[in-house]
Amino acid sequence: MMAAFLLYYWQQVDFKPEESLIFRILYRCSIPSIFIWILSGYFVKDISSPIGIAAYAALERPVYCLFLVVAMFGFIKKVDGKYILTIL
């Protein structure tokens, strides 16, 4: 829900994420980070500390959603296409 409000705000202030260097860096890192975060769940079974398991369980969904929202904004705003054209 917060992502929808952020997208609406960006439209109101005429923010173009495809022109923002910070957003392009976050977008480029978000796709590999999604796969790394999913694979990190495999290594949780080796953690014996209840605090470690609780920390992972508390952070797993919000962090995954953050990566996914950044990737979706990049897909929707076509961040990568314009960046590739400026390099060429």
UniProtKB/TrEMBL annotation:
<keyword id="KW-1133">Transmembrane helix</keyword>
<feature type="transmembrane region" description="Helical">
    <location>
        <begin position="25"/>
        <end position="44"/>
    </location>
</feature>
<keyword id="KW-0472">Membrane</keyword>
<protein>
    <submittedName>
        <fullName>(apollo) hypothetical protein</fullName>
    </submittedName>
</protein>
<feature type="transmembrane region" description="Helical">
    <location>
        <begin position="56"/>
        <end position="76"/>
    </location>
</feature>
<keyword id="KW-0812">Transmembrane</keyword>
